[in-house]
Amino acid sequence: MNFSDPTLLILLGLAALGIISHNNIVTVAILVLLIIRLTPMEQYFPWVEKQGLTIGIIILTIGVMAPIASGTLSASTVLHSFLHWKSLLAIVIGVAVSWLGGRGVSLMSSQPSVVAGLLVGTVLGVALFRGVPVGPLIAAGLLSLLVGNT
Questions:
Q1: Do the beta carbons of residue 136 and residue 30 sit within 8 Å?
Q2: Which has more pLDDT, 18 or 93?
Q3: Cβ distance 118 to 143 under 8 Å?
Q4: pLDDT average, residue stretch 114-135
Q5: DSSP 29-84
Q6: pTM for the complete prediction?
Q7: pLDDT, tens digit, for every residue of 21-37?
Q8: How far apart are CA 80 and CA 87, in angstroms?
């Protein structure tokens, strides 16, 4: 391992931040990336970069939808949610956040220079404030409202 490699130093620093903050999500994610980077699996980084976000969103969606699929959250409970103001507000906010995420994807594609800042900010938010790493898309969406998509 070449400790003068800036990329490795950044990853090690982020892993340390995850460990210090007791955030297993950051720690495991960074350690997996380090393993990929330091082994012959490094050849799969283009695939991980291209498909990782999609796979992550699929897994996140499975986790969110599991209570409905398992029956823990009954159909009647779901239907009754349309009658409560908090649930209706949650629906509106869900639509807004999804829209922001879409803007975020566009911004990250059209202005790749902002990606590093968004990623570092998200990792810091996860590590220091016990957030969850869904932030880059939403952060990019919010940023797109301020700076535009192009």
A1: no
A2: 93
A3: yes
A4: 76
A5: HHHHHHHHHHSGGGGGHHHHHHHHHHHHHHHHHHHHHHHHHHTSS-HHHHHHGGGS
A6: 0.67
A7: 777 877 898 899 999 99
A8: 9
**pLDDT (tens digit per residue) in 48-95:** 988 887 888 889 889 989 999 999 988 888 888 888 888 888 889 888
What local confidence, expressed as pLDDT, does residue 70 receive? 94
Furthest-apart CA atoms within the chain: distance in Å: 59
Model pLDDT, residue 150: 52
Rounded-to-integer distance, Cα 45 and Cα 37, Å: 8
Residue where the block lists tokens 């999609």: 54
Question: b or e along 105-131 (b: 16 or more beta carbons within 10 Å of the residue's beta carbon)?
Answer: eebbeebeebeeebbeebbbbbbeeeb
Q: Are 106 and 149 in contact (CB under 8 A)?
A: yes
The ranges assigned to domains in the chain are 1-38, 74-150
Q: How many Å apart are CA 107 and CA 102, to the nearest integer? A: 9
Identity of the residue numbered 109: S
